[in-house]
Every structure is written in C-alpha cells, then in structure tokens.
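SUBJECT: protein chain
CONTENTS: sequence, structure tokens:
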Amino acid sequence: MATALILSEEYLQHDTGNHPEKSARYAATLSALMADQELWESLIKLAPRAATEQELLRCHDQHTIARVTQACQSAPAALDADTVVSAASERVALLAAGGACRAVDAVMSGQAENVFVACRPPGHHATVWRSMGFCLFNNVAIAARYAQAEYPQIKKVLIVDFDVHHGNGTQEIFYEDPTVFYYSLHQYPWYPGTGASSEIGSGEGEGYTLNIPVPASTPAVEYLRLFEQGLESIVKVFAPDLVLISAGFDAHVADPLGQLMLTDDDYSRITRRLKELARSSCQGRVVSCLEGGYNLRTLGGTVRAHVAALS
C-alpha cells in the first residue's frame, strides 16, 4: 500500500523572519522530495485541513489557544523568546494540527498505509498551558486524541519522538494516560531541560512514558542500540493500534541545534524498524509529522531518506 504526503504552500506563510524555524525549511524539504522523481510520483498528495477548536481543546487549555490568536492579531509578536508569530501563523498552525488529523483519516480509511505530514510549525514542545520552543499547537498529540475520539478501534497509541530535543509538551499531555505511550530519545542535558530517565508517567500513566536521555556526541551505533532496546521493552507491554512519529531531524550530525551523530542511513533504519513494528501490531498504520531539523543543506535529504523508508 502507498505512502501519502500531506503538503500545502500555506505552510510557507508562517513568517518567523531570521529564525532557525523558517519557511526555507519547508521549501528545502519539498524540493528534495520532488528531486527524487520516482519517489515523488509514488506518493499520494493530500491537502491538510484546519484543526477545529474541539480538536485543539483535547490537548490545550482555552487560554493557550486564545494567546496564539491574540499574538497573531498583533503580529509580528513573540509568545516566548524562541517562538515568534506572524499574522498568518495561527492559520498555518491550525493546518499543521489538522494535517496530522487528515493523515490519521488516510491511514484509517485505507487510502494509505502510512503518511508523512510535511508541516510547520512543529508541535512537540507545546504543552496544555503554553506554546513554546517554536511550537504553537501540539500536532502529534492532537492527532493521537483525534484518532481515539473518531475511531473506536484506536484505543492505544504509541508516539515515538526522535527529535534531538525532548518533547516536553507531548509528555505532559499524556503523562497520566495509560492509553498513549510516549517514547523519546533526545540529547540530555539540552533544551528544554526535561526528559530524564526518571520521568516515567504518573498515576494510571506510570510506566507509559519512556525517556532515553543521550549525551552529546554519542556515536550513532550506540544511539541505535539504545533505540532498539527501548522499543523492545515497549512492545512487551504495549501493543499500539496506531504509531505516531515526532520526526525531528536535528539529531543529524550536521544540525546546528544539536550535538548528536545520526546520518540519513540511521534515520532510514529507525524508520524501517518503526514500520516493521506497526505492521506487526496495527496493520502498518504510521503517521509521521515533521518536527525539528535546521540545516538547510541536509534537511531535505534526510527527510527524503525517511519518506523513502516509509514507502
């Protein structure tokens, strides 16, 4: 079955100025995918839709949503020292979150086996209470809650986050929830300071968060060993009905915002392994959403490797 791609020119309209998370990232990503003609022609192209307020409210407080609206109305503005918005940013962020939900529909309807959501802004730092760390709304978290709400067969969701930065927002949203397993490998200590191995969930969710903090300059072979070890421990206790990926490519050896050592081949291996897990557990259903990755010379090729492995 085919791989689908969520894409939209509107993702370019989130104007951050001279900022690491800029529209050129999206342009580089799409250019690299188009350059591989065979891959590009094999992808099912799907347009995103805007997330609804109800979909946002499953993961975010009303005040968090209102603050994004207000900031965009007075744009250019900043939600924090790292997170800037333009007049179009709210609309674009709604399309990022809604694009992830549209991807869930595609895998659930059988339109595609898996989907890559080429969206921005990223999402995994956005908490219930706060937009932060380049992120306005938490795209992957919103997609997880959407899948559980709209599809009765989706009871358990595995979120795998391999961004170089810990997805503090995603972890917070599901920290007490045993139906969503959050698994993160990330550089540590590093922004945003969360993601210690002792953070394992609480209440009914205890044991359903797994953090593997990785020191700077860890060799890729050791990273991959830790990744596999963590994944094996998860599948012993949790059989997902859907796999979501927070696909950050800033653990790449050439990325300016991280100090890890992964290459395109390593991302391909990780992707194939997650696809294999999904085929054994949930009919191959994988939705991958673009998070970080800030080297414009390498990002497109790394995304292409990821999408090629999905397809």
